[in-house]
Amino acid sequence: MEAQNLGKSNIEIIADAKRSFKGQLGAFILAMLISMLALGVVIMAFAVVEMIILSVLALVFSGFLVGIFMLLLGTIFLAFILVIQGKLWVWQTNYVLETSKGNRPSLSSLKDIFTDFDSIEKLKALPQRKEELLKLLFPALTMIIMGVGIALGFVLLILPGILLSYMWSQVAFLVAENPERSPLNQLKLSAQMMDGHKMKLFWCYFRLMPLFFLCLLPIGLGMIWLGPFMSFLGAEFFKNVKEVNSPKI
Predict the structure, then answer these.
(1) Long-range CB contacts (< 8 A, 24+ apart) of 174-182?
(2) Phi and psi torsions of 231, nearest 5°
(3) Separation in Å, CA 110 to CA 31, 50, 91, 113, 202
(4) What is the Cα 227 distance to its own chain's centre?
(5) What is the mean pLDDT of the chain?
(6) Could you tell me if 85 and 122 are in contact, meaning their C-beta atoms sit under 8 angstroms apart?
(7) pTM of the predicted protein model
């Protein structure tokens, strides 16, 4: 039987990750902090707007109607927040992926996550853009389905959770490359890509166990470096798996 082509060795993938991550720690932390701050500002702004609207409505309508408005506004705002959260997830993953390719993503590109809602005309047109709005929700829905699925796997028997986490390890990068692909297709494609590569990823992580324990020694401060590095390692592994699977995806 012909041996399966697994592409680069884990030693090569780790070396590539070290090269692409070199000198990027500060920029990475800054990018992640700013993106998380942007999400926090959006959530706070929605909460303030909702409170103001409901306060005004309470002066005019009965408690029952205000409750209906609260439910409606809550649903609308939740959809907006999920869209923004999904877009930020895509932006964060793209930042790592592009940096690992030698590019230098600009922090100013963060403003692009609001391009679908940056004018009154676009907001007014939302009811007629149902299909487009649903696609905007795909990244966040993918993140939720993946998280719930892995969590249930760990709660039930642990091993299913571990297996799912390896099967779906490429989802974030797949979403970053094509955010409009449906959540189930993202999960399915990741599982297909990882067919025959799950043990390779396991041994890749296992090889880094000494580094993990070393980073824990100074009261865990080393994790500030290890966490971002693992993101770049994931990007390098994704590029390798994608190249190996290129005829099939």
Answers:
(1) 175/89, 175/90, 175/93, 175/138, 175/139, 175/142, 175/143, 176/90, 176/93, 176/94, 176/97, 177/97, 179/86, 179/87, 179/90, 179/135, 179/138, 179/139, 180/135, 180/138, 181/138, 182/138
(2) -65, -40
(3) 9, 24, 7, 6, 33
(4) 15
(5) 89
(6) no
(7) 0.88
**Radius of gyration for the chain, computed over Cα atoms and rounded to the nearest angstrom:** 21
Identify which of 110, 245, 230, 244 has the alpha carbon closest to the alpha carbon of residue 172.
230
Token readout for 133 is 């709005």
| pLDDT reading at 123 higher than 80 | no
Question: How far, in Å, CA of 149 to CA of 162, rounded?
Answer: 11
What would the two tokens of residue 248 be?
């099939």
Q: Where are the alpha helices (DSSP H) in 101-177?
A: 120-124, 130-156, 159-167, 171-177
Tally the C-alpha atoms within 13 A of residue 206's C-alpha that lie toward its C-beta: 6
Residue 4: band (very low, low, confident or very high) from pLDDT cuts 50, 70, 90: low
Report DSSP state, residue 1. Answer: -
pLDDT on residue 248? 58
Give dist(CA 122, CA 134) in Å, integer.
15
